[in-house]
Amino acid sequence: MGQTLILGGIVMISLLGSVPRRVMGAAFVAVLLAGGMVGCGGGSGRESAHEGSRRAAPVTAVGEAAVKSERITSLHYRVTGTVPEKGRLEAEASMRTEPAVMKMKLKATDHGSDGRLEIRFVDEAMYVSGTAIDPKKLHGKSWFTARPAVWGRGSMDNKSYRILPSQIEGNPTAQSRILTASQDVRRIGTETIDGTRTTHYRGTVTGQDIRTARDAAANRAARERQIDNLDQFMMLRIDDTLTMDLWIGDDNHTKQFRMRGKAGPTPGDTDGKPLDLTITFLDINQSVSVEAPPPEDTADLAVLAGEAQAD
Questions:
Q1: Are 57 and 64 in contact (CB under 8 A)?
Q2: What distance in Å separates the CA atoms of residue 88 and residue 112, rounded to the nearest whole number?
Q3: Whole-number Cα distances in Å, 113 to 36, 88, 105, 302
Q4: For residue 39, what is the DSSP state?
Q5: pLDDT digits over 162-196, tens only?
Q6: How much is the mean pLDDT over the chain?
Q7: Residues 203 and 185: beta-carbon distance below 8 Å
Q8: Pairing of strands 186-193, 143-146
Q9: Burial 176-190 (b: 16+ CB within 10 A, else e)
Q10: Radius of gyration over alpha carbons of the chain, in Å?
Q11: Which DSSP state fits 222?
Q12: How far apart are CA 266 and CA 273, in angstroms?
């Protein structure tokens, strides 16, 4: 039978049978139990660039923002909302695409001070620390590490040992482009988000919408964008329809997006649960540095799980 290592009642690592300790992907699953965890033209007589953008067809505006998102190489962002199985959460993160790194402070709000984690992805390893981990299990260390670990890639490539919900394993710049496949995108109005004036758009998206947009793509780049959209949609594990709101700033960059839908059923939840996530872009293309914790302050997850098996 498998053995279980409980970390502060929040992180659980289960040993799935007898396998080599270094074969992390086959041996362990780590779970975070997180709930359950207006402007004018300035009198110039000519329309400003922003006013012209407002008059553009919503699908054009959303498409322009998608192209801009593809050029983002680093991002500082905030996440709030509810994810299936994990409940309510808040997070703030920074990421860079080349090389791919990410650091995040995550709070499972239903667990209060006992639901906090700091997570880093660097050099194909994941490092985790926080009050959600029982320090006695770490033998005086502050962090545990697991490898290989991957964040921000496609739905089949990510590996965060279930510390992160799948819905926030995706690169948010890619997720923000899903609305380009909507058949009913429309302009809602103008709003100020964190001091930035934006135009608010909304639409619904299904997997079939994305496939239709893929098949109708005018060129290879547009087709690949919809293929990526389908991958991101799958990562969200939406049962059918995703409702998406997108706030676009004067510079045609995405400032914020919100995704709402019902997750598909799981073996332990035949009805599914709601997804409602809002992701706000705080800074783009700024310097981002992510460093691994000191080795002397880090415990290897494989060793910890091996000790749990021996108990």
A1: no
A2: 11
A3: 16, 14, 13, 27
A4: -
A5: 888 888 988 999 999 999 999 999 999 999 999 99
A6: 80
A7: yes
A8: unpaired
A9: bbbbbbbeebebeee
A10: 21
A11: H
A12: 9
